[in-house]
Write a structure and sequence with these properties.
The structure holds 3 protein chains of 3 kinds.
Chain A: E1 6-17, E2 20-32, E3 37-41, H1 48-55, E4 64-73, E5 76-77, H2 83-87, E6 94-97, H3 101-104, H4 111-122, H5 127-140, H6 146-149, H7 159-171, E7 177-181, H8 189-206, E8 209-214, H9 217-223, E9 226-231, E10 234-240, H10 241-246, H11 251-259, E11 309-310, E12 320-321, H12 326-332, H13 334-339
Helix pairs in contact in A: 4-5, 5-7, 7-8
Chain B: H1 15-34, H2 40-50, H3 52-70, H4 84-87, E1 97-98, H5 101-117, H6 122-137, H7 140-145, H8 150-163, E2 166-167, H9 181-217, H10 219-233, H11 237-248, H12 251-259, H13 264-275, H14 278-291, H15 295-302, H16 307-318, H17 320-344, H18 355-364, H19 374-401
Helix pairs in contact in B: 2-19, 3-9, 3-19, 5-6, 9-10, 9-13, 9-14, 9-16, 9-17, 9-19, 11-13, 14-17, 15-16, 17-18, 17-19, 18-19
Chain C: H1 2-31, H2 45-54, H3 61-73, H4 88-123, H5 128-142, H6 145-159, H7 171-201, H8 204-211, H9 216-228, H10 230-253, H11 259-269, H12 272-300
Classes of the chains: A alpha/beta, B mainly alpha, C mainly alpha.
Chain lengths: 343, 408, 307
C-alpha cells in the first residue's frame, strides 16, 4: 500500500481576538497520497485555508494558536519545526499558491526578482542560472515572450498571467506537495479553466500531490480525486469525487450540490440556496454546527457533535461523514430536499 | 445623519394587500425605532475610554485647561511685577510672598469714606478726589496684572477676597527681572492654549468650507481651487508669517492697529489659523468627493435643498469624523508654532506671556558660569506636557473614530 | 521624455509659486514703513535722496516692482538694507552652505534613527522595544526642538560638558544642533515606518514570500522595507520644510552663522531685501525638494506614474 506523503492528525487551531476566542479548526485529520489531488471544500470561514496555512506554519502566532495535532510530512512533524527548519521545506518541498494573484505578488519587485530568489535559495542557483530557470518556468506555464516579460512588474500582467507566474514560482523547485488556496476564485471563468488545465498538466508532468482548496464544486469535479468537505472548522464528509456527486451523505454536502447547477437536471430546476448564515465561529452551537440550517434537524442533533463514521460500500474509510441522519438521507437522497418545507 | 429615502412600494390595487403593506411598514418602523443606533461618536467615545494612555492624556489636558482658565483666581504672584534688586534670578524657594493689596485697598476705602464724610469744601474735596483717582489708577491690580479684562479682574478680586495677600512662594524660582516663574508659566498657558483654540477654529472654518465647496462643485472650480492649494503648499508660510510679524511689530503699525481696536495678538492668532487650513481643505474635499454621490445627497436634492444647504447641512456633518481626527493634529501643531514664533521673538510681545517666550527668556540667561535651570525646565515642561498629551489624545481619537487608520 | 515633461511642468509651477511669493512680500514690504530710511537717526535730505536712489525707492511703485522683479530673475537681490557693506547674494552665499550642512546632517540622523526604530517596532510588535521606541517617538514629536535644545544645552554643555555651547566649524559643534534638529523628524519617521511596515506585513505578498521559504530577515529587507518607506518618502517633502524652519531656532540657539539666523536678523531689523532674498531661496529649495521626493517616489513604486 502507498504511504501517505502528508498525514494531518487531530489538528486544532484557534485565534485569540479582542472579542473572544475563535476556534477555526477543530479536530481535522486527513491523509494526502503522492500524486493525488485532494479537494477541500467549504464556505468562507470554514477553516479550510487555516488548516493548510497551519501545515505550512504560515498562520501568524499570535493571534493564531495550534492547540493540538500533528502534521507528519515523511518523518517530520511540521508543527514542531523551528523557523529555520521550515525554511528548507517551504517553497522547496511544499509550495503554495494563493487566491488573489493581484495581491500575492510583490508590486515593488520585478517578476524576475521574485522568481529567482526561490531557486537561488533552495537549488543553490547562481543569479544567471536562476534567470534561465525562471524563463523556462514561465514558458512552461504558458507565458508568451517570457524572456522579455520577465523583467516587468506584476501590475503589467493580467490576473490570469499573474496566477501563472504564481504557479511557476511555486513549481520552481519541483515540490512534493502543492497547496492551491482557491487559485481560480478571483479569475474570470475562461481563465479559471485555463488555470485548472495548467495545474493538471503540471501535475502530470511533475507528479506532485495537490491540495486544492475551493468552494466551487464544479472545480472539484474537474480536478480532484478525493474531496473533504468542511463546515464550522470540522470535517463533515470525505470521499472520492465520484461518490460525492453520486451519493453524498451529509446534509451540508447535499446543500452544496443543490446550490450548484448541474447538466443532468432539467433547465427549469431552480437552484436551492442553503438557508441561514454560516456559523459564528466564536460560539459554535453545541452538537452539529450545521444543525441550525439543516432540514433534517432533530433535537438529537444539538446534543453532541456527530462522530465521523465510515459508510462506504467499498474499502472501509473511503467514505466518511458526520451526521446522525445519514442513513435516512441515503434513502431519500437529493429529492428529499425539495419536499421538505425548509427548502 | 445619513438620510435614506423612504422605500416606495409598488402601487397595489388590492386594498387589503395595501393595508397589509402598511401594517408591515408600521412593524418595520417600530422595530427600527426600538433599536438604539450606535452613533459614530458614542462608539468612538467607548473605544477611546478603553485606551488608557489617551484617557490619562485627556485628564492631564483637562487639568491644564482648567488651571489656565482659573489662573487669575489662583493665589499666584504677579506675573509681570519686576523687582530686580531683591528678587533677581532666585532659585526655587519656599519663603512666602505678600502682595500688599489688602493694605492698599484699606487705605483706598478709608480715603473714600473720608470723601463721603467730608463736607462740600471744594479745594480739599477736589484734592482728595484726585488722590483717590490716582490711587485707583495705580491700583496694584493694574500694576501687577497689566490692566486685566473684565472677567480676569473679577477673578482677581475674588482671589483677593479669598486668599488676601497670600501668594504661593516662588517654588519655581524667579527670572532675571525678579518675576515669579510659576505665575508666568500659568499666565503663559492662557495665551498658548487660547492660540491653539482660536487658530485651530480659524483653520477649521476656512479649511472645511474651502474643501467642501471645492469637492461639491467639482469640475473646473475644483480644479482651480486645488491648484491654488498646490501653489500655497509650496509657499514657506512660516517664513512669510515671520516677515509679516516683523512688520506688525513696527511701532507705527502697532499704533494704527490699536486705533482700530485690533489687538496684535488677535492678528497673530488669525494669521496662524490662516496658514494651517491647507491639509484640512484637501482632506475634506476628498471626503466630500466620495460622499456627494451618496443617496442621501440625492434625497436632499429631491426635496429641494439648496446647494449650500446640501454642502453645510448634509455633507459637512458627515465629514466631521475625519475633521476631528485632523483637528487633533492641528491643535498641537498650532500651539507649537505659536511657541516657536514667540521663542524667536516674533510672536506674542511683552507684557503678554507665552510659553515659547518663557523658554526663550530661559535661553537668554544661560551662561557657563551658573545654570538657571528653573527658567527653562518649568516652561519647557509645561509646553512639552501639553503637546505630549495632545499627541497621545490625538492618536487615541484617531484610533477611536477611524478604525481604518488604526496604528498610524 | 515623460521625465522631461514632468520636470518642465514642475519648473513652470515653481516659477508661478516664486512669483506669488515675490509679489506678496514685495507689496507687504512697501505697504509697511521700515527699511533703510526709518532708522533711529534722522537723515538729512541729501543722504535720504542718495539712499533712496541706491535702493530705487524714488521710482513709482510699479517701476520699482518691475525693476525688482527683473533683478530677482537675474538672481540679483540687491544690497542689504542693514548690512550696508554686503549684497544680499553675498550674505546668502555665506549662510547657505552652513545651513545646508546642518540640515543634511539633521536629516540623515532623523532617517537613520527613525527608520531603524520603526522597523524594529513593527517587527517586534507589542514588545517592550516597540513600546519604548514609540513612547520616545511621541516624545520627540511633542517636544519642540527649541525646548529640546535648551534642555540639551543645560545637560550636555554645561552640566556634563560633552559639547561646546555654540559656534561653527568643528564637527563637535555641529553634532548637538543636528541631533536636536533631527529629533522630531526621527520621531515622525519612526512612526511612519512602523505603520507602513505593519501595513505591508499584512499584505498577501508577504505571505507568499514566507511560503517561498525565505527567512524573516530577507522578507523584511527585500520584500517589506521598500513598500513601507513610501510614507516616509512622501513625508520627506514636509520634513524638508520642517528642517528649514527648525534650523531657524537652532541656528539662533547655537549661534550658528547660517541662512536661518540671517533671516531672523533680517526680519527683526526689517531688512527687506535680505529677508526677501532668503524667502525666495527657501521657496525654491522647498520646491526642488518636493520635486525630488516625487521623483524618488516613482522610482521606488513602479506603479506610480509621474504627472
Amino acid at each position: 500500500m502507498v504511504q501517505p506523503i502528508l498525514q494531518v492528525k487531530n489538528l486544532e487551531v484557534e485565534f485569540v481576538t479582542d472579542d473572544g476566542i475563535v476556534s477555526a479548526v477543530n479536530d481535522i485529520s486527513f491523509d494526502l497520497y503522492p500524486g493525488e489531488t485532494l479537494g477541500i471544500v467549504g464556505e468562507s470561514g470554514s477553516g479550510k485555508s487555516v488548516t493548510n496555512l497551519t501545515v505550512l506554519g504560515l498562520i501568524p502566532q499570535p493571534p493564531g494558536r495550534v492547540i493540538n495535532g500533528e502534521a507528519l510530512f515523511g518523518e517530520q512533524d511540521l508543527l514542531k519545526l523551528s523557523h529555520r527548519q521550515f525554511q528548507t521545506i517551504r517553497g522547496k518541498r511544499i509550495a503554495m499558491i494563493f487566491q488573489d494573484p493581484m495581491t500575492a505578488l510583490n508590486p515593488f519587485l520585478t517578476i524576475q526578482d521574485q522568481l529567482i530568489e526561490v531557486s537561488m535559495l533552495h537549488l543553490g542557483h547562481t543569479r544567471n542560472q536562476a534567470i534561465v530557470h525562471a524563463v523556462e518556468l514561465l514558458e512552461l506555464v504558458g507565458i508568451p515572450a517570457a524572456a522579455s516579460r520577465v523583467t516587468e512588474y506584476p501590475h503589467q500582467f493580467s490576473g490570469g498571467m499573474r496566477q501563472r507566474v504564481m504557479i511557476a514560482m511555486a513549481l520552481s523547485c519541483d515540490p512534493d506537495i502543492l497547496i492551491a488556496d482557491e487559485p481560480t476564485t478571483a479569475l474570470d471563468v475562461t481563465i479559471q479553466a485555463q488555470i485548472l488545465d495548467l495545474l493538471k498538466t503540471m501535475q502530470d508532468r511533475l507528479g506532485m500531490a495537490i491540495i486544492f482548496i475551493t468552494h466551487d464544486l464544479g472545480v472539484v469535479a474537474s480536478i480532484c480525486d478525493r474531496v473533504m468537505v468542511m463546515y464550522g472548522g470540522r470535517k463533515v464528509e470525505q470521499t472520492d469525487t465520484k461518490t460525492l456527486f453520486a451519493s453524498a451523505r451529509h446534509p451540508y454536502t447535499l446543500g452544496l450540490l443543490q446550490s450548484a447547477p448541474r447538466w443532468d437536471q432539467p433547465q427549469q430546476t431552480r437552484l436551492q440556496a442553503i438557508e441561514g448564515q454560516p456559523p459564528d465561529m466564536m460560539n459554535l452551537p453545541a452538537g452539529c454546527a450545521f444543525a441550525p440550517r439543516c432540514p433534517w434537524k432533530t433535537d438529537e442533533c444539538s446534543v453532541a457533535v456527530p462522530e465521523l463514521v465510515s459508510g462506504g460500500t467499498a474499502s472501509p474509510g473511503s467514505h466518511l461523514f458526520a451526521c446522525i441522519h445519514a442513513d435516512q438521507i441515503q434513502q431519500t437522497g437529493l429529492t428529499a430536499l425539495e419536499e421538505l418545507p425548509h427548502a | 445623519m445619513n438620510q435614506t429615502p423612504i422605500p416606495t412600494t409598488d402601487e397595489q390595487p388590492d386594498k387589503s394587500s395595501k393595508r397589509m403593506e402598511l401594517q408591515r411598514l408600521a412593524e418595520v418602523m417600530s422595530v427600527a425605532q426600538s433599536q438604539q443606533g450606535v452613533s459614530l461618536w458614542s462608539d468612538g467615545w467607548k473605544r477611546l475610554k478603553r485606551n488608557r494612555v489617551s484617557m490619562l492624556s485627556l485628564w492631564t489636558l483637562v487639568i491644564i485647561v482648567v488651571l489656565a482658565i482659573i489662573t487669575p483666581a489662583l493665589p499666584l504672584q504677579s506675573p509681570i511685577f519686576q523687582d530686580v534688586k531683591q528678587r533677581e534670578l532666585l532659585s526655587p524657594e519656599f519663603k512666602t510672598y505678600k502682595l500688599g493689596i489688602v493694605d492698599y485697598n484699606e487705605t483706598l476705602a478709608l480715603k473714600r469714606q473720608t470723601l463721603i464724610e467730608m463736607g462740600p469744601l471744594d479745594d480739599q474735596r477736589a484734592a482728595l478726589q484726585a488722590e483717590i483717582e490716582g490711587l485707583e489708577a495705580r491700583h496694584p491690580i493694574n500694576v501687577y496684572w497689566n490692566d486685566p479684562g473684565f472677567i480676569s479682574q473679577a477673578m482677581i478680586k475674588f482671589r483677593i477676597f479669598i486668599f488676601g495677600d497670600y501668594c504661593i512662594p516662588s517654588i519655581c524660582g524667579t527670572d532675571k527681572l525678579g518675576r515669579d516663574v510659576l505665575s508666568r508659566v500659568c499666565w503663559g498657558s492662557r495665551v498658548s492654549l487660547a492660540c491653539g483654540l482660536i487658530a485651530t477654529l480659524v483653520s477649521l472654518l476656512i479649511g472645511v468650507s474651502y474643501g467642501a465647496i471645492s469637492g461639491y462643485f467639482g469640475g473646473r472650480i475644483d480644479n482651480i481651487m486645488m491648484r491654488i492649494i498646490d501653489v500655497a503648499y509650496s509657499i514657506p508660510f512660516i517664513f512669510i508669517v515671520i516677515f509679516i510679524m516683523s512688520f506688525l511689530s513696527a511701532p507705527k503699525v502697532r499704533d494704527t492697529l490699536n486705533e482700530y481696536g485690533i489687538n496684535q495678538i488677535t492678528v497673530f492668532f488669525l494669521m496662524i489659523g490662516a496658514i494651517y487650513w491647507l491639509t484640512m481643505a484637501r482632506v475634506v474635499r476628498g471626503q466630500v468627493l466620495s460622499l456627494k454621490n451618496e443617496q442621501f445627497v440625492d434625497a436632499a436634492k429631491t426635496i429641494g435643498t439648496s446647494q449650500w444647504g446640501i454642502i453645510f447641512k448634509h455633507l459637512v456633518p458627515n465629514v466631521m469624523g475625519i475633521v476631528i481626527v485632523y483637528l487633533t493634529l492641528t491643535i498641537p501643531a498650532v500651539i507649537r508654532f505659536e511657541a516657536f514664533l514667540s521663542f524667536l521673538g516674533m510672536g506674542v510681545q511683552a507684557p503678554d506671556i507665552s510659553w515659547g517666550m518663557l523658554v526663550n527668556e530661559g535661553i537668554q540667561v544661560i551662561t557657563p558660569i551658573r545654570i538657571y535651570w528653573w527658567m527653562i525646565i518649568f516652561s519647557g515642561l509645561a509646553l512639552a506636557l501639553t503637546l505630549f498629551s495632545l499627541n497621545f489624545l490625538g492618536d487615541g481619537v484617531r484610533d477611536a473614530l477611524d478604525p481604518k487608520l488604526k496604528n498610524r | 521624455m515623460q521625465l522631461l515633461v514632468f520636470l518642465l511642468k514642475r519648473l513652470g509651477w515653481m516659477l508661478i509659486t516664486v512669483w506669488v511669493v515675490f509679489t506678496l512680500s514685495f507689496f507687504l514690504m512697501r505697504a509697511i514703513p521700515g527699511g533703510p530710511l526709518n532708522g533711529e537717526r534722522v537723515l538729512s535730505e541729501s543722504v535720504r535722496a542718495q539712499l533712496e536712489q541706491r535702493y530705487n525707492l524714488d521710482d513709482p511703485l510699479f517701476v520699482q516692482y518691475t525693476t525688482h522683479l527683473w533683478n530677482t530673475i537675474c538672481f540679483d537681490f540687491g544690497p542689504s538694507y542693514k548690512l550696508q557693506d554686503f549684497t544680499v547674494n553675498e550674505v546668502l552665499a555665506q549662510g547657505f552652505p552652513v545651513s545646508a550642512a546642518l540640515g543634511i546632517l539633521g536629516m540623515t540622523f532623523a532617517l537613520l534613527l527613525g527608520m531603524t526604530a520603526g522597523v524594529v517596532s513593527a517587527v517586534c510588535r507589542t514588545s517592550i522595544y516597540d513600546f519604548s521606541f514609540m513612547l520616545l517617538a511621541t516624545l520627540g514629536i511633542a517636544i519642540p526642538s527649541f525646548v529640546l535644545a535648551s534642555m540639551a544645552i543645560v545637560l550636555f554643555v554645561f552640566y556634563f560638558q560633552f559639547f561646546p555651547a555654540a559656534g561653527w566649524g568643528e564637527l563637535k559643534q555641529i553634532v548637538l544642533p543636528a541631533m536636536c534638529l533631527g529629533a522630531p523628524f526621527a520621531g515622525y519617521i519612526a512612526r511612519l515606518t512602523r505603520t507602513g511596515m505593519l501595513e505591508i506585513l499584512s499584505n498577501d505578498y508577504i505571505r507568499t514570500a514566507y511560503a517561498k521559504g525565505l527567512s524573516t530577515r530577507t522578507v523584511i529587507l527585500r520584500h517589506a522595507l521598500r513598500g513601507s518607506i513610501l510614507p516616509v518618502v512622501s513625508y520627506l517633502g514636509p520634513a524638508c520644510a520642517g528642517i528649514l524652519t527648525g534650523s531657524l531656532v537652532l541656528e539662533k540657539i547655537f549661534a550658528i552663522p547660517g541662512m536661518g539666523s540671517h533671516f531672523i536678523e533680517a526680519a527683526l531689523q526689517r531688512d527687506f531685501t535680505l529677508g526677501m532674498g532668503a524667502l525666495l531661496t527657501y521657496t525654491v529649495l522647498l520646491y526642488v525638494m518636493n520635486t525630488l521626493v516625487d521623483l524618488s517616489y516613482s522610482i521606488i513604486d513602479p506603479r506610480v506614474v509621474l504627472e
